Amino acid sequence: MAKLSDFDEIGRDFYESMPMPEFTYTPWVVPKPIAKARVAIISTAGLQLRGDRPFSVNSTDYRILPSNASSADLVMSHISINFDRSGFQKDHNVALPIDRLNEFVADGKIGSAAAFHYSFMGATHPDKLEYAANQLADVLKKDHVDSVLLVPI
User: Fold this and answer.
1) pLDDT tens, position by position, 98-109
2) CA distance 61 to 15
3) Range of the domain at 41
4) pLDDT at 1
5) 80 falls within a domain
6) What does the alpha-carbon distance between residue 88 and residue 79 come to, in Å, rounded to a whole number?
């Protein structure tokens, strides 16, 4: 992952001038206790199953990843040249912590893991992802997911 200090002055100025959303700290709903919650993972690492279509520049959709996917099943097609893939190549949990989530479920710290997890292409402007995010929210509701673990890459 590139740091601002890695860019020249023009690049730093560009990224520092990008508008960033501001969020209030008031929860939308009272959350279910995590020990009873069903949790899904959403990553922006550009992950897909081997054999699925890869992400492309300006992809605005997502890929579905079953909770039993192994390292051998996962492919990273993130398009950013600044993206460091070495962590993912050593341990897929860096970008999609399925094993850690399942450990928390086994330990009783989390109620259950969703049957499916999801990946978007990072390095995409959030406005372009709104339609797919709304679609995914409906999918998550139908799967009775109470909480998501966001893994921004």
Assistant:
1) 999 999 999 999
2) 24
3) 32-151
4) 62
5) yes
6) 15
Percent of the chain with pLDDT over 70: 99
Give pLDDT, residue 15: 87
Torsion of CA 63, 68, 72, 75, to 10 degrees: 10
- List alpha helices for the chain, DSSP H: 9-17, 86-90, 98-106, 126-142
pLDDT in tens, 38-67: 999 999 999 999 999 999 888 999 999 999
Contact yes or no for 61/138 (Cβ under 8 A): no
Query: Are 114 and 68 contacting, i.e. CB atoms less than 8 angstroms apart?
Result: no
Report if residue 14 sits inside a domain. no
Q: Cα separation of 28 and 5, whole Å?
A: 36
CB distance 38 to 146 below 8 Å: yes
Is residue 62 in some structural domain? yes
10 pLDDT exceeds 80?
A: yes
Q: How do 47-49 and 74-76 pair as beta strands?
A: antiparallel
User: How many independent structural domains does the chain possess?
Assistant: 1
Instruction: Evaluate whether residue 69 is within a structural domain.
Output: yes
